[in-house]
Amino acid sequence: MLYLKKINLEDVEEEYKAIKSIPAQENGFENKYHNVTKEEFVNEVIPKLLKNSEGLDLPDGYVPDTYFFLWDDNKIVGLFKIRHYLNDFLRKGAGHIGYGILPEYRGKGYAKQGLLLAIEKCKEIIKEDEIYLSVHKNNPASLRVQLGCGAFIVGETDEEYLTRIKLKDNSITFGFRDLRRNDWKRITKKEVIVEDEKNEFFEGKVCYLDMQLVESPLSVDSPTGKVTIADNNYKNLIFAPKGENWWLTVMFDDQDNLIESYFDITRTNDFSNPENPYFVDMKLDVCISNGYEPTIMDEEELKEVYEHGLITKEDFENAYNIANKIIRTYNSHKEDYYEFIYNLYNKYRNKELGNIKSK
Predict the structure, then answer these.
(1) Of 7, 84, 131, 307, whose Cβ has the fewest other Cβ atoms within 10 Å?
(2) Is 10 exposed, middle or buried (0-12, 13-18, 19+ CB in 10 A)?
(3) Structure pTM?
(4) 238 forms bridges with which residues in the sheet?
(5) Quick one: which H or E segment has residue 91?
(6) What b-and-e string marks burial along 313-330, b requiring 16 or more CB atoms within 10 Å of the CB?
Protein backbone atom coordinates (compact mmCIF):
# COMPACT_ATOMS: atom_id res chain seq x y z
CA MET A 1 0.00 0.00 0.00
CA LEU A 2 1.23 3.47 -0.89
CA TYR A 3 0.86 6.29 1.66
CA LEU A 4 2.39 9.57 2.88
CA LYS A 5 3.63 9.70 6.46
CA LYS A 6 4.87 12.78 8.27
CA ILE A 7 8.53 12.79 9.29
CA ASN A 8 8.95 11.34 12.79
CA LEU A 9 11.45 9.80 15.19
CA GLU A 10 9.92 6.31 15.08
CA ASP A 11 11.05 5.63 11.52
CA VAL A 12 14.40 7.36 11.73
CA GLU A 13 16.41 4.44 10.30
CA GLU A 14 14.46 4.33 7.03
CA GLU A 15 14.08 8.12 6.91
CA TYR A 16 17.82 8.69 7.23
CA LYS A 17 18.60 6.19 4.48
CA ALA A 18 16.12 8.00 2.24
CA ILE A 19 17.54 11.46 3.00
CA LYS A 20 21.04 10.23 2.16
CA SER A 21 19.80 8.63 -1.07
CA ILE A 22 18.13 11.75 -2.53
CA PRO A 23 20.67 14.11 -4.19
CA ALA A 24 21.34 17.48 -2.55
CA GLN A 25 20.20 19.38 -5.66
CA GLU A 26 18.52 17.89 -8.71
CA ASN A 27 16.13 19.41 -11.26
CA GLY A 28 15.10 22.14 -8.83
CA PHE A 29 14.45 19.86 -5.84
CA GLU A 30 16.64 20.82 -2.89
CA ASN A 31 17.53 18.29 -0.21
CA LYS A 32 19.27 20.40 2.42
CA TYR A 33 20.01 17.39 4.61
CA HIS A 34 21.78 15.10 2.17
CA ASN A 35 25.13 15.50 3.94
CA VAL A 36 24.03 15.49 7.60
CA THR A 37 25.22 12.81 9.98
CA LYS A 38 22.72 10.44 11.52
CA GLU A 39 23.27 12.10 14.90
CA GLU A 40 22.50 15.52 13.42
CA PHE A 41 19.46 14.13 11.64
CA VAL A 42 18.02 12.67 14.86
CA ASN A 43 18.93 15.43 17.31
CA GLU A 44 18.68 18.55 15.15
CA VAL A 45 16.97 18.08 11.80
CA ILE A 46 13.84 16.15 12.79
CA PRO A 47 13.05 18.33 15.86
CA LYS A 48 13.60 21.45 13.73
CA LEU A 49 11.31 20.21 10.92
CA LEU A 50 8.58 19.20 13.36
CA LYS A 51 8.67 22.68 14.90
CA ASN A 52 8.65 24.34 11.47
CA SER A 53 5.56 22.35 10.49
CA GLU A 54 3.80 23.98 13.46
CA GLY A 55 4.99 27.45 12.42
CA LEU A 56 7.56 27.62 15.23
CA ASP A 57 11.17 28.88 15.04
CA LEU A 58 10.84 29.86 11.39
CA PRO A 59 13.70 31.88 9.87
CA ASP A 60 12.74 35.24 8.33
CA GLY A 61 11.12 34.79 4.92
CA TYR A 62 10.18 31.14 5.51
CA VAL A 63 6.69 29.65 5.76
CA PRO A 64 5.54 26.54 7.65
CA ASP A 65 6.10 23.32 5.72
CA THR A 66 5.70 19.64 6.44
CA TYR A 67 7.96 16.82 5.27
CA PHE A 68 6.16 13.66 4.23
CA PHE A 69 7.91 10.47 3.21
CA LEU A 70 6.23 8.36 0.55
CA TRP A 71 6.01 4.77 1.75
CA ASP A 72 5.26 1.64 -0.24
CA ASP A 73 4.37 -0.81 2.53
CA ASN A 74 7.53 -0.91 4.68
CA LYS A 75 9.96 0.95 2.41
CA ILE A 76 10.41 4.66 1.67
CA VAL A 77 10.37 5.49 -2.05
CA GLY A 78 10.12 9.30 -2.05
CA LEU A 79 9.92 12.61 -0.19
CA PHE A 80 7.26 15.33 -0.51
CA LYS A 81 7.49 18.80 1.08
CA ILE A 82 4.21 20.71 1.42
CA ARG A 83 4.33 24.43 2.23
CA HIS A 84 1.24 25.53 4.15
CA TYR A 85 0.90 28.89 2.38
CA LEU A 86 2.91 31.04 -0.01
CA ASN A 87 4.81 34.28 0.13
CA ASP A 88 5.62 36.34 -2.99
CA PHE A 89 8.89 34.50 -3.57
CA LEU A 90 7.29 31.04 -3.47
CA ARG A 91 4.30 32.16 -5.53
CA LYS A 92 6.66 33.09 -8.37
CA GLY A 93 8.76 29.96 -8.05
CA ALA A 94 8.79 26.76 -6.01
CA GLY A 95 5.12 26.89 -4.99
CA HIS A 96 3.42 24.59 -2.49
CA ILE A 97 4.96 21.20 -3.24
CA GLY A 98 8.49 19.95 -3.77
CA TYR A 99 9.13 16.28 -4.31
CA GLY A 100 11.79 13.76 -5.14
CA ILE A 101 11.76 10.03 -5.74
CA LEU A 102 14.68 7.89 -4.55
CA PRO A 103 16.89 7.06 -7.56
CA GLU A 104 16.32 3.30 -7.35
CA TYR A 105 12.53 3.72 -7.52
CA ARG A 106 12.26 6.12 -10.45
CA GLY A 107 10.35 5.20 -13.58
CA LYS A 108 7.87 3.08 -11.65
CA GLY A 109 4.98 5.56 -11.35
CA TYR A 110 5.72 6.61 -7.76
CA ALA A 111 5.98 10.33 -8.59
CA LYS A 112 2.46 10.52 -9.99
CA GLN A 113 0.94 8.39 -7.26
CA GLY A 114 2.76 10.38 -4.61
CA LEU A 115 1.70 13.71 -6.09
CA LEU A 116 -1.93 12.58 -6.11
CA LEU A 117 -1.60 11.74 -2.41
CA ALA A 118 0.07 15.12 -1.79
CA ILE A 119 -2.85 16.89 -3.50
CA GLU A 120 -5.19 15.24 -0.99
CA LYS A 121 -2.94 16.42 1.87
CA CYS A 122 -3.02 19.94 0.42
CA LYS A 123 -6.80 19.95 0.69
CA GLU A 124 -6.33 19.66 4.48
CA ILE A 125 -3.36 22.00 4.81
CA ILE A 126 -3.09 24.90 2.37
CA LYS A 127 -5.07 28.13 2.34
CA GLU A 128 -5.14 28.82 -1.40
CA ASP A 129 -7.70 27.42 -3.87
CA GLU A 130 -4.96 26.25 -6.21
CA ILE A 131 -1.74 24.35 -5.71
CA TYR A 132 1.24 26.23 -7.12
CA LEU A 133 4.13 24.20 -8.52
CA SER A 134 7.13 24.62 -10.80
CA VAL A 135 9.16 22.26 -12.95
CA HIS A 136 12.46 22.55 -14.79
CA LYS A 137 12.06 22.60 -18.56
CA ASN A 138 14.78 19.98 -18.93
CA ASN A 139 12.80 17.58 -16.73
CA PRO A 140 9.93 16.50 -19.01
CA ALA A 141 9.23 13.41 -16.90
CA SER A 142 8.26 15.61 -13.94
CA LEU A 143 6.20 17.91 -16.15
CA ARG A 144 4.35 14.88 -17.51
CA VAL A 145 3.64 13.77 -13.91
CA GLN A 146 2.19 17.17 -13.02
CA LEU A 147 0.06 17.35 -16.17
CA GLY A 148 -1.24 13.86 -15.43
CA CYS A 149 -2.38 15.06 -12.01
CA GLY A 150 -4.37 17.98 -13.41
CA ALA A 151 -1.69 20.68 -13.68
CA PHE A 152 -1.82 23.45 -16.27
CA ILE A 153 0.92 25.87 -17.30
CA VAL A 154 0.36 29.49 -16.26
CA GLY A 155 3.76 31.00 -17.03
CA GLU A 156 7.44 30.35 -17.41
CA THR A 157 10.94 31.59 -16.69
CA ASP A 158 14.08 30.87 -18.68
CA GLU A 159 14.53 27.60 -16.76
CA GLU A 160 11.11 26.60 -15.44
CA TYR A 161 7.41 26.25 -16.19
CA LEU A 162 5.07 27.57 -13.51
CA THR A 163 2.07 25.28 -13.09
CA ARG A 164 -1.07 25.07 -10.97
CA ILE A 165 -3.55 22.41 -9.93
CA LYS A 166 -7.05 23.36 -8.90
CA LEU A 167 -8.05 21.76 -5.61
CA LYS A 168 -11.75 21.46 -6.39
CA ASP A 169 -11.45 20.01 -9.88
CA ASN A 170 -8.23 18.48 -11.16
CA SER A 171 -9.77 15.84 -13.41
CA ILE A 172 -9.01 17.68 -16.68
CA THR A 173 -5.54 16.90 -18.00
CA PHE A 174 -3.39 18.30 -20.81
CA GLY A 175 -1.58 15.99 -23.21
CA PHE A 176 2.18 15.66 -23.45
CA ARG A 177 4.15 14.16 -26.33
CA ASP A 178 7.84 13.86 -27.14
CA LEU A 179 9.30 13.77 -30.64
CA ARG A 180 10.71 10.25 -30.48
CA ARG A 181 7.48 8.93 -28.99
CA ASN A 182 9.24 7.45 -25.97
CA ASP A 183 5.99 8.25 -24.15
CA TRP A 184 4.00 5.84 -26.36
CA LYS A 185 4.28 2.49 -24.57
CA ARG A 186 2.11 0.79 -27.22
CA ILE A 187 5.18 0.61 -29.47
CA THR A 188 7.42 -2.32 -28.52
CA LYS A 189 9.94 -2.07 -31.36
CA LYS A 190 10.70 0.94 -33.52
CA GLU A 191 13.16 2.63 -35.85
CA VAL A 192 13.67 6.37 -35.31
CA ILE A 193 15.52 8.97 -37.40
CA VAL A 194 15.66 12.60 -36.18
CA GLU A 195 17.06 15.43 -38.28
CA ASP A 196 16.89 19.22 -38.70
CA GLU A 197 14.71 20.47 -41.56
CA LYS A 198 14.09 23.95 -42.92
CA ASN A 199 12.07 25.38 -45.79
CA GLU A 200 9.82 28.40 -46.36
CA PHE A 201 7.01 26.84 -44.29
CA PHE A 202 8.90 24.98 -41.58
CA GLU A 203 12.00 25.12 -39.40
CA GLY A 204 12.69 22.64 -36.64
CA LYS A 205 13.15 18.93 -36.01
CA VAL A 206 11.57 16.08 -37.96
CA CYS A 207 11.27 12.52 -36.69
CA TYR A 208 10.71 9.54 -38.95
CA LEU A 209 9.09 6.83 -36.82
CA ASP A 210 8.62 3.24 -38.02
CA MET A 211 6.38 1.36 -35.58
CA GLN A 212 7.88 -2.04 -36.37
CA LEU A 213 5.95 -3.81 -33.62
CA VAL A 214 3.01 -2.61 -31.49
CA GLU A 215 1.17 -4.29 -28.64
CA SER A 216 -2.14 -3.86 -30.46
CA PRO A 217 -3.57 -1.74 -33.30
CA LEU A 218 -5.00 1.67 -32.44
CA SER A 219 -8.14 3.03 -34.11
CA VAL A 220 -9.45 6.54 -33.43
CA ASP A 221 -12.26 8.82 -34.54
CA SER A 222 -11.57 11.04 -37.54
CA PRO A 223 -13.69 13.33 -39.74
CA THR A 224 -14.21 10.31 -42.03
CA GLY A 225 -15.07 7.81 -39.27
CA LYS A 226 -12.89 5.28 -37.47
CA VAL A 227 -9.36 5.01 -38.81
CA THR A 228 -6.40 2.87 -37.74
CA ILE A 229 -3.36 5.05 -37.06
CA ALA A 230 -1.01 2.57 -35.34
CA ASP A 231 -0.18 -1.00 -36.27
CA ASN A 232 2.85 -3.09 -37.15
CA ASN A 233 5.05 -1.29 -39.72
CA TYR A 234 2.96 1.89 -39.73
CA LYS A 235 5.04 5.06 -40.06
CA ASN A 236 4.87 8.65 -38.87
CA LEU A 237 6.57 11.82 -39.98
CA ILE A 238 6.52 14.06 -36.91
CA PHE A 239 7.31 17.78 -37.21
CA ALA A 240 8.39 19.84 -34.17
CA PRO A 241 8.57 23.50 -35.31
CA LYS A 242 10.60 26.11 -33.47
CA GLY A 243 8.84 29.29 -32.36
CA GLU A 244 5.37 28.00 -33.21
CA ASN A 245 2.35 26.66 -31.32
CA TRP A 246 1.57 23.64 -33.43
CA TRP A 247 2.98 20.15 -33.98
CA LEU A 248 2.32 17.98 -37.03
CA THR A 249 2.08 14.19 -37.31
CA VAL A 250 1.68 12.73 -40.79
CA MET A 251 0.60 9.08 -40.65
CA PHE A 252 1.26 6.27 -43.15
CA ASP A 253 0.11 2.64 -43.16
CA ASP A 254 2.26 -0.46 -43.71
CA GLN A 255 1.92 -0.05 -47.49
CA ASP A 256 3.24 3.55 -47.38
CA ASN A 257 -0.22 5.01 -48.02
CA LEU A 258 -0.85 8.39 -46.40
CA ILE A 259 -3.65 8.13 -43.81
CA GLU A 260 -3.96 11.67 -42.48
CA SER A 261 -2.12 14.80 -41.41
CA TYR A 262 -2.81 15.78 -37.80
CA PHE A 263 -1.92 19.21 -36.39
CA ASP A 264 -1.93 19.52 -32.60
CA ILE A 265 -2.32 23.13 -31.42
CA THR A 266 0.15 23.40 -28.55
CA ARG A 267 0.60 25.38 -25.36
CA THR A 268 4.35 25.14 -25.81
CA ASN A 269 6.98 23.40 -27.93
CA ASP A 270 10.05 22.82 -25.76
CA PHE A 271 13.53 22.26 -27.20
CA SER A 272 15.44 21.95 -23.91
CA ASN A 273 16.61 18.59 -25.27
CA PRO A 274 17.13 19.36 -28.99
CA GLU A 275 17.27 15.66 -29.88
CA ASN A 276 13.91 14.95 -28.30
CA PRO A 277 11.70 18.08 -28.05
CA TYR A 278 8.26 17.80 -26.50
CA PHE A 279 4.97 19.68 -26.53
CA VAL A 280 2.12 20.37 -24.14
CA ASP A 281 -1.27 20.18 -25.83
CA MET A 282 -3.78 23.02 -26.10
CA LYS A 283 -6.66 20.61 -26.92
CA LEU A 284 -7.66 22.05 -30.33
CA ASP A 285 -6.56 20.10 -33.43
CA VAL A 286 -6.72 20.23 -37.21
CA CYS A 287 -7.13 16.91 -39.03
CA ILE A 288 -6.67 16.48 -42.79
CA SER A 289 -7.75 12.98 -43.82
CA ASN A 290 -6.20 11.91 -47.12
CA GLY A 291 -8.36 13.23 -49.96
CA TYR A 292 -10.55 15.39 -47.69
CA GLU A 293 -10.66 19.01 -46.58
CA PRO A 294 -9.19 20.17 -43.23
CA THR A 295 -11.42 19.84 -40.16
CA ILE A 296 -11.04 21.56 -36.79
CA MET A 297 -11.47 18.98 -34.01
CA ASP A 298 -11.92 18.84 -30.23
CA GLU A 299 -13.55 22.24 -29.95
CA GLU A 300 -15.58 21.08 -26.93
CA GLU A 301 -12.39 20.12 -25.12
CA LEU A 302 -10.92 23.57 -25.72
CA LYS A 303 -14.14 25.17 -24.51
CA GLU A 304 -14.10 22.98 -21.39
CA VAL A 305 -10.58 23.96 -20.33
CA TYR A 306 -11.43 27.62 -20.91
CA GLU A 307 -14.63 27.43 -18.85
CA HIS A 308 -12.71 25.76 -16.02
CA GLY A 309 -10.19 28.60 -15.97
CA LEU A 310 -7.26 26.45 -17.12
CA ILE A 311 -6.50 28.78 -20.05
CA THR A 312 -7.12 32.47 -20.63
CA LYS A 313 -9.42 34.07 -23.18
CA GLU A 314 -6.29 35.05 -25.11
CA ASP A 315 -5.15 31.41 -25.13
CA PHE A 316 -8.59 30.32 -26.34
CA GLU A 317 -8.69 32.83 -29.18
CA ASN A 318 -5.07 32.20 -30.13
CA ALA A 319 -5.73 28.47 -30.51
CA TYR A 320 -8.42 29.21 -33.11
CA ASN A 321 -6.21 31.77 -34.84
CA ILE A 322 -3.44 29.18 -35.23
CA ALA A 323 -5.86 26.50 -36.45
CA ASN A 324 -7.36 28.82 -39.05
CA LYS A 325 -3.91 29.95 -40.22
CA ILE A 326 -2.90 26.30 -40.71
CA ILE A 327 -6.01 25.71 -42.83
CA ARG A 328 -5.46 28.85 -44.93
CA THR A 329 -1.81 27.99 -45.54
CA TYR A 330 -2.66 24.41 -46.46
CA ASN A 331 -5.42 25.44 -48.86
CA SER A 332 -3.08 27.91 -50.57
CA HIS A 333 -0.21 25.42 -50.94
CA LYS A 334 -1.71 21.93 -51.21
CA GLU A 335 0.57 20.78 -54.01
CA ASP A 336 3.66 22.16 -52.31
CA TYR A 337 2.59 20.54 -49.04
CA TYR A 338 2.20 17.03 -50.43
CA GLU A 339 5.33 17.29 -52.57
CA PHE A 340 7.30 18.25 -49.46
CA ILE A 341 5.74 15.47 -47.36
CA TYR A 342 6.27 12.69 -49.91
CA ASN A 343 9.82 13.78 -50.73
CA LEU A 344 10.72 13.83 -47.07
CA TYR A 345 8.99 10.53 -46.38
CA ASN A 346 10.78 8.81 -49.25
CA LYS A 347 14.11 10.26 -48.15
CA TYR A 348 13.75 8.86 -44.64
CA ARG A 349 12.26 5.58 -45.86
CA ASN A 350 15.23 5.01 -48.13
CA LYS A 351 17.59 5.96 -45.32
CA GLU A 352 15.93 3.41 -43.04
CA LEU A 353 16.18 0.70 -45.69
CA GLY A 354 19.85 1.56 -46.14
CA ASN A 355 20.40 1.29 -42.39
CA ILE A 356 18.72 -2.12 -42.33
CA LYS A 357 20.87 -3.44 -45.21
CA SER A 358 24.06 -2.26 -43.52
CA LYS A 359 23.30 -4.06 -40.27
Answers:
(1) 307
(2) exposed
(3) 0.90
(4) 207, 249
(5) helix 88-91
(6) eebbebbeebbeebbeeb
